[in-house]
Amino acid sequence: MKTLRKTCVLLAVCLAVSVCTSRVGAEADDVAGAADKTAGAARPGQFFVRLQKLDNYYREVAVLVLMAVYVANIVYGRAVNERLAIAWTAEIVKSGGVLDRNFSLLGPGDTNAGEVLLKESMHEFKLWASGRRYCQSLLATFILKKRQDLLGLSLDFFAGSRDVMDIEIAVNEGSMPPIVLAIAAPSVARQLVKHMDDIEASAHRGAVGGYGVPLQAGLNYSAHTKRMEVDRARLPAWPQKGVSVLAEHSSIFYDLLAPPLVDLLFGQAAWAAVQPLFRSLHVTSDFPSACGPHKQVIRLSFYLPAVVDADAVQRFFTAATVLIDLVGTYKLSPEQTRRAVEARARAEKKAKSDESREEEEEKQRRAEERRKKKFEEEKERLKRMTPEQRARYEEKKRMKQFKSQFRVKTM
Questions:
Q1: From CA 24, how far away is CA 385, in angstroms rounded?
Q2: How far apart are CA 18 and CA 22, in angstroms?
Q3: Which of 26, 84, 98, 168 could pair with 317 as two cysteines, CB 3.0-4.6 Å apart?
């Protein structure tokens, strides 16, 4: 609404400027006409200036039409995104659905009155639920295309952007052991390694494609990651391609990928329908503080189908609830717990060391800048001095250095 008001104000200002320009032009024409009448009295060879009249207003009309189209697209794009968010929400929270069966409270307002959806912006909407064991809340975020932005919509058309839903579950403190696991499409896996500190610090790289099937080209993960091969004898239904696995250690992957979760998302029968929509699955006890307030988090991200398909979305929400129970009941062995704690202690020590080194480098950089500034100021001051003043200044500086050196030697 604020953007619409600003655009309308801008359009009104442009119209006012156009009217004022027309009036000024008319007055200028009157003056030019008077000058034409007196031009005959000018001496031969004397020049006078006259403005050429504007033949058309095509450019002005084109600008006004473009602004009108921009405003109309804001209104239309906002309405389309709102309709999509409401239609998807109605399917997700319907009576007897996954959220209705698993959570006691949907939305921040009156659930019975339909107050379950929050509008963050013209293209982002949030659906909140709580009241389930092992977790504090579930936050589903609709990240739709910026249909209200004409330029952004044009760029999205060439970039192939799609509507996305992110499900983020805040797990209760103490309900998740120290683990990190990520399963993602290869392109999304690269972004996770790049932007998620927990994955970069502790995850092994895995390409799940059978015995010795190579990882897709371009997955240049950090040097401390290792490749993990999935034993297809243990998971025979795992997809042949199109998915990458990053895990702190392999036992987490095998333990959490229970048959109910595999049948929902990664089984041979399910993967054909899931692969075009699946983006990532992220389970972590060390969620970066820059990404959210909770440390123990389960995240599931997927593309929304082009048409409202309740079965496709309910599948992902069902998988999220299955993951809550799997993580809430999962326990590491004492040896695994010890290794996980030690690994996190080493990572924290390294982070502190890097931070202290960066602070020291910043101090040295500032000190060097102060020295350079002082040197430049002294240089400028010497330029303004007379030869006698410069000689006295140099003598005073040498005496000061001599006293400082003598003091150091006596100490």
A1: 59
A2: 6
A3: 98
Cα separation of 323 and 257, whole Å?
A: 9
What whole-number distance in Å separates Cα of residue 104 and Cα of residue 126? 17
Burial-class residue 110 by CB neighbours within 10 Å (0-12, 13-18, 19+).
exposed
What one-letter code names the amino acid at 182? Answer: A
Inter-residue contact 303 to 277 (CB < 8 Å):
yes
Four-CA torsion 229, 230, 232, 238, nearest 10 degrees = -130
Alpha-carbon distances of 113 from 108, 110, 156, rounded to whole Å: 11, 5, 35
> What DSSP state is assigned to residue 132?
B
The tokens for 263 are 């049948």
Give the global pTM: 0.69
Q: Which amino acid is at 211?
A: Y
Alpha-carbon dihedral angle through residues 144, 89, 280, 186, given to the nearest 10 degrees: -40
Q: Which residue type is seen at 243? A: V
Contact assessment for residue 171 and residue 327, using Cβ atoms and an 8 Å cutoff: yes
Contacts of 162 (CB under 8 A, 6+ apart): 145, 303, 304
Question: Between helices 58-92 and 2-38, what is the axis angle to 10°?
Answer: 170
| Tens digits of pLDDT across the chain (411 residues) | 455 555 555 555 555 555 455 554 555 455 445 545 554 444 555 556 676 676 778 888 899 999 999 899 999 999 999 999 999 999 998 888 899 999 988 887 666 666 789 999 999 999 999 999 999 999 999 999 988 888 888 887 787 789 999 999 999 988 899 888 889 888 888 888 887 877 765 554 444 433 223 333 333 333 333 456 777 788 888 887 888 888 888 888 888 998 999 999 998 888 988 999 999 999 998 887 777 788 899 999 999 998 888 888 999 999 999 999 999 999 988 888 888 888 778 877 887 888 888 888 888 899 889 889 888 888 888 888 888 888 888 888 788 777 777 665 565
Distances (CA, A) of 133 to 170, 175, 281, 298, 325: 11, 10, 20, 14, 8
Non-local (6+) Cβ contacts of 370 within 8 A are: none
Query: How far apart are the C-alpha atoms of 395 and 385, rounded to whole Å?
Result: 14
Tell me the β-bridge partners of 81: none
Task: Identify whether the C-beta of residue 162 lies closer than 8 Å to the C-beta of residue 145.
Answer: yes
Is residue 242 a contact partner of residue 186, using CB atoms and an 8 Å limit?
yes
